[in-house]
Design a protein that fits this description.
Blueprint: H1 15-23, E1 28-31, H2 43-51, E2 59-66, E3 69-76, E4 80-81, H3 83-89, E5 95-97, H4 100-107, E6 124-128, E7 137-143, E8 146-150, H5 152-159, E9 162-164, E10 167-168
Parallel strand pairs: 3-6, 6-9
Antiparallel strand pairs: 1-8, 2-3, 2-5, 4-10, 7-8
Length: about 170
């Protein structure tokens, strides 16, 4: 019996961009030169600055543990994640940041490049409600130095995300 050919990613594609293309979603990829020295600061702030995009339109993808279940939180890089609000949004009692190794293993992405799209295992996702105030937002495209810009409603539809006020300034 002949083997089925493996699906190949587009040249330079990531699981996130492949998922967007497969879904027929409109998006724009923005690449920038990632500076490894900036890792001590914030990957998201580095992206906003490198792309010349307001930090309230660039969103970071964080993985939290809500009552033993890994959950993705997508919040503006200009602020931080409110863990209590995240837990409440998904009907949980307590949330903590996930172990970085568990987040990488579960999503298939490295820290600083975790995308809410194209994850190895689809996790429940919560998108900060502030995303709705922008026609498009930027999120990681699946590796450091690569962002994808898309409508927040498209991101929510593709990830099954719910909108909730989970960010704080």
């Amino acid at each position: 019996m002949a083997k089925k050919p493996k699906k190949q990613q587009q040249s330079g594609g990531t699981p996130a961009t492949v998922a967007l293309t497969a879904a027929g979603t409109a998006f724009t990829v923005h690449a920038y030169e990632h500076d490894p020295a900036s890792a001590s600061a914030s990957y998201g702030e580095e992206a906003a600055e490198a792309l010349g995009v307001s930090p309230d339109r660039v969103f970071k993808t964080l993985v939290a543990d809500v009552d033993g279940t890994l959950t993705v939180a997508v919040v503006p890089v200009a602020g931080s994640l409110d863990l209590k609000a995240l837990a409440s949004a998904v009907g949980g009692k307590r949330a903590t940041m996930a172990d970085p190794a568990a987040a990488e293993r579960t999503t298939g992405y490295v820290r600083g490049g975790i995308s809410p799209l194209g994850q190895r295992k689809r996790l429940r996702t919560v998108l900060d409600a502030s995303a709705r105030s922008h026609p498009t937002i930027c999120v990681s495209a699946g590796r450091r130095g690569l962002e994808v810009e898309l409508a927040p409603t498209d991101l929510a539809a593709l990830t099954g995300a719910l909108f909730a006020e989970i960010g704080r300034e």
